[in-house]
# Entry
Amino acid sequence: ERRSGAWPQDNEEAEGELCQQLLQLGRVSLQDARAAILNLEEQHARRRAWVWAQLDQAPLATALQHLAGLARETEQALGGGTLPEMVDAYTDRGWKADAAVLDALAAVDRVDDVAAVKAAVSTLYRPWLDDTTRTFQTLALSSEPQALRPDASILDVPKGTCILFSDALRFDAA
# Structure
């Protein structure tokens, strides 16, 4: 195979192709986008071991590992039969989708690369986020008022502990 990683033009060519492939994800179904991302990850994962990735010249290959994580995390809807079950589902695994989006976007700087990552994120994340938000709203509206209050144990924290509240179901580490 020509792409051994030894030549910078091989990396540049692979990044350019990957950019175009990611941009196309805005035009395909969610299932096709998920399959494409996982396939691209399989093809490009080895490039993260190339010297060019170590020199920050393979940002899309780096972002791709996070997009693959996003594809896996959003494969299953986030829900639960009750509000506390949904909260548990989010704190257990749902936050990983949010983190994958942030990490994928943080990996790229160039306008074209950002657009490519955004196309993939939009296709994979928006439907999952919309479904998650609607499920949460439905559960919140149908819950008893006490279910909407935080557990009192959250206020029982050691001295010197900082509690950070961030809305929109965020569980990002501060």
In short: Helices lie at 8-23, 30-44, 51-54, 59-73, 83-106, 111-142. The chain is about 60% helix and 0% strand.
